[in-house]
Design goal:
Layout (H helix, E strand, L loop, with lengths): L19 H5 L20 H9 L3 H5 L6 H10 L1 E5 L2 E8 L2 E5 L1 H7 L14 H10 L10 E3 L5 H13 L9 E3 H12 L5 H10 L1
Antiparallel strand pairs: 1-2, 2-3, 4-5
């Protein structure tokens, strides 16, 4: 006799209590820094206050839903173009052109960047600062593990990795360019965060 076939149950949709906004959004693109406004974490009180008062505050704390479908639509159509002598990234979202440039990022994120400022720090300056921070990583390496820094610097680098960098996975390591941004902010050096973000978007 032929074996009896088991009847399969009809597929049922999984129940979820998540709102549509949460289902459609991409978690990795919606990370913002929690800067402990009530000062509950005494060990981080000074550094969180410093970030809140810094010019990158909005860039790391402003929260708005970012939808997967819109991200894909933008990047699938994105190209680098030049308009009136200015380079920018242009993509289409819902049949509307969306332009991104350092100047636009500077305005939207309220970064207060000097348009003539560089977006990198000399590697010798970065390494010297890491020594003063008592970093236990190999400062000659191309990447630094945030866990090898004292707590306050570890927190700053953690915020930059999560909210500014273009990393898609692995949130412990930071390249020399991102560490350079941390150094520039700490030393109050001239540095264009908007150019840095734009360069990362081009990659």
């Amino acid at each position: 006799m032929a074996p009896k076939e088991k009847k399969r149950k009809a597929a049922t949709k999984k129940k979820t209590d998540k709102p549509e906004e949460q289902i459609m959004s991409e978690k990795r693109h919606n990370m913002v820094a929690y800067l402990d406004p009530d000062g509950k974490f005494t060990e981080l009180k000074e550094i969180t206050q410093w970030i809140r008062e810094s010019r990158m505050n909005k860039a790391v704390t402003f929260s708005t839903p970012v939808y997967k479908s819109l991200i894909k639509e933008f990047w699938n159509s994105a190209s680098i173009i030049e308009v009136d002598g200015t380079e920018l990234i242009q993509g289409r979202v819902n049949e509307v052109n969306v332009n991104v440039s350092p100047d636009i990022l500077n305005i939207v994120l309220e970064l207060q960047d000097d348009p003539n400022a560089p977006y990198s720090v000399p590697i010798i300056c970065t390494r010297g600062c890491l020594l003063r921070m008592t970093c236990t990583s190999d400062i000659f390496s191309s990447q630094i593990n945030k866990g090898d820094l004292p707590m306050r610097y570890k927190f700053v680098l953690h915020v930059l990795i999560q909210c500014i960098s273009n990393r898609r996975a692995g949130y412990d390591m930071a390249g020399n360019d991102l560490v350079g941004l941390m150094v520039a902010l700490g030393l109050n050096k001239s540095f264009s965060i908007s150019k840095f973000i734009y360069a990362n978007m081009k990659e």
